[in-house]
Amino acid sequence: MNTNEIRWQSPSNIALIKYWGKRSFQLPMNPSLSISLKQSFTDTRLVYTRKERANTDLSFEFYFEDRRNLGFECKIRNWLIHVKPHLEFLDDYELKVYSSNNFPHSSGIASSASSFSALALCLCSMEKEVTNDINDFDSFEQKASYLARLGSGSASRSIYGKFAVWGKSDLIPGSSDEYAIPLTNPVHENFADLCDSILIVASSAKKISSTVGHHLMENNPFAEARYGVAKSNLNKMLDVLKSGDEKSFIRIVENEALSLHAMFLTSSPGYFLCLPGTLSIINKIRSYCETSGLFLCFTLDAGPNVHLLYPKRFQTAIHAFIKSELLQYCENERWIDDEIGGGPYFIGS
Ligand code: DP6
After folding, report:
1. Cβ of 152 less than 6 Å from ligand 1
2. What is the spatial distance between Cα 140 and Cα 134, in angstroms, rounded to a whole number?
3. Does the Cβ of 233 fall within 6 Å of ligand 1?
4. Whose CA is nearest to atom 12 of ligand 1?
5. In this structure, which residue's CA is closest to atom 6 in ligand 1?
6. For residue 14, what are the contacts with CB-CB under 8 A and spacing of at least 6?
7. Ligand 1 and 157: CB distance under 6 A
8. Which phi and psi angles does 200 have, rounded to 5°?
9. 12 touches 233 (CB < 8 A)
10. Per-residue pLDDT at 119 exceeds 90
């Protein structure tokens, strides 16, 4: 039997400028900007065997933490249907995927970005091995980002380390709605070693999924204003990243988080994903920031957990602050200490 395997680790990411609202098939309504994390990643192994007889059926099994997982398998099978036109060899192989996350299950960290990006990278590596071709794409990463985006928009950004942009922006040459690119604009040293301490207020599954949430933007009367705010925040952020202006960084990042959550409140039906603990943490962060004069800020995903961003030089002080003031609002005092990372890692084939 002709069996081969490929293994990639790919990180989760946290958006500074948020993607919320999509059009057509998985295209964003505004450009977004994120940092890739270092410690929170998905490890994916793709085992492929050439079929004895070619057919047009997709042969695919998905194992999560070594157990077949039919729920994820169904989701990924649907994704593969959209991926197949770009990877025409797929039907010639039996595919088995073994995936695990190194961050705790139900930790509130979105795993779709790390898992779709890891799988897209495995499939692109497979393509390289079986066809030596990346047809129509400028690079391996560009194709991996494109395929990852078809599974989950934010996954397109996890293909790159450090800062990544997904969505067309006039100020960023080469940016595209179809795939993410690494940010090549200058980044001041103040932001080069950002830490992200993730405070787990609740780990349970969201009541409103991202898919439903994005969809609700279509009838949100504030949607157009939000897309304008995101575009303008991205433009301002490019200047801030260059100049190193920490105060403006805080203002923009927090504005993004709060205006994202304003979209949840103003959708119809409206919903809120913050919990009392989320608000207590935000208030504590704001007063600590004022009294200490240190550079730290918060951001939120589509959930109640709080990401605390700050430069590495403040790590000792901020860890002490987290332990004394913030852990009381976390579920079982849980938090994850992460930081900006170098992007996916090819383990081997
Ligand atoms: C709030 O990427 O999870 O995290 O494309 O439907 O999979 P789908 O949505 P998803 O949305 C992420 C939204 C966000 C902001 C962001 O990461 O930009």
Report:
1. yes
2. 7
3. no
4. 154
5. 211
6. 34, 35, 37, 196, 299, 301, 307, 309
7. no
8. -85, 95
9. no
10. yes
- Residue of 33, 104, 38 lying closest to 312 (CA atoms): 38
Per residue in 190-234, pLDDT tens?
A: 999 999 999 999 988 777 888 999 999 999 999 999 999 999 999
pLDDT digits (tens, 9 = 90+) for 281-303: 999 999 999 999 999 999 999 99
Provide DSSP, 69-110. -HHHHHHHHHHHHHHGGG-GGGGGEEEEEEEEESSPTTSS--
Q: Looking at the chain, which residues constitute the CATH 3.30.70.890 domain(s)?
A: 189-339
Residue 300 beta carbon below 6 angstroms from any ligand 1 atom? no
* DSSP codes, 1-40: --EEEEEEEEEEEEEEE----EETTTEESS-EEEEEEEEE
The CATH code of the domain at 189-339 is 3.30.70.890
Q: Over 70: is that where the pLDDT of 1 sits?
A: no
Task: Give the Å distance between the CA of 178 and the centre of ligand 1.
Answer: 15
Q: Is the pTM of this model over 0.90?
A: yes
Q: Which atom of ligand 1 is nearest to the CA of 213?
A: 6
C-alpha–C-alpha distance, residues 61 and 95, integer Å: 6
- CATH (one of 3.30.230.10, 3.40.710.10, 3.10.50.40, 2.60.40.420) for 3-185: 3.30.230.10
Q: What are phi and psi of 196, to 5 degrees?
A: -130, 105
**Would the CB of 125 count as within 6 Å of ligand 1?**
no
CB of residue 256 inside a 6 A radius of ligand 1: no
**What separation in Å is there between the alpha carbon of 131 and the centre of ligand 1?**
32
Ligand 1 contact, 29 CB (< 6 A): no
Query: Alpha helix (H) ranges present in the chain?
Result: 70-83, 112-130, 140-151, 210-216, 223-243, 246-266, 276-292, 315-321
How many Å apart are CA 148 and CA 117, to the nearest integer?
A: 5
Distance between CA atoms of residues 234 and 265, nearest Å = 23
What is the Cα gyration radius of the chain?
Answer: 20
